[in-house]
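G., before I forget:
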Amino acid sequence: QVQLQESGPGLVKPSETLSLICSVYGGSVSSGRYYWSWFRQPPGKGLEWIGYIYHGESANYNPSLKSRVTISVDTSKKLLSLKLTSVTAADTAVYYCARHFCSGAGCYPFFDYWGQGTLVTVSS
Amino acid sequence: DIVMTQSPDSLAVSLGERATINCKSSQSLLYSSDNKNYLAWYQKKPGQPPKLLTYWASTRESGVPDRFSGSGSGTDFTLTISSLQAEDVAVYYCQQYYSSPYTFGQGTKLEIK
């Protein structure tokens, strides 16, 4: 059974870099089989896809965040990471990591395994 | 970006009654090469991550009760809960995965009447 768990600072100052990690249990982040995405949900608002990483190297980002976001994989530690630079109050949200659905037919960008999420507040 | 619009924004239904949530996309989600609609539905409860309910517009995820069903094609989709249970109180989201960036509807809050 795959389990994901996000962690990182709950408070980040404006203009600084938000850094989160996602620990993956029961599924290899370094495997070429799976895609891994990050999402966020600001308080009282909807869900936003941030980007994904595949094969530990290939990444695809939401154009709305592309200039500020980096998703990477630490294969030795089985961790995903998210970095978002130059944060503002608008980046305050619950951040989630999730795995893309995969079957014998391939992998698709809808999501069957999610972490519980971690709240990040941007404030001085 | 593909814009996803759900209706209504909120819905109150009596226990045991049918709940219907609609989702409209700004462009067709039907991929001609495989004749599949690239649309998923999720249930989200406070303090919990989204839970996948259906994908390919109408395929129910393993373990999801059969009172949940998805339908529709092209640009118009529906999630139906045939007989509302107390544990179905949640916000429901549709999500397109036809093209990146993958986008969600604004959510529909479902409550008990």
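Chain A touches chain B through 20 residues (CB under 8 Å). The two ends of chain A are 39 Å apart (CA to CA).

More on Monday.
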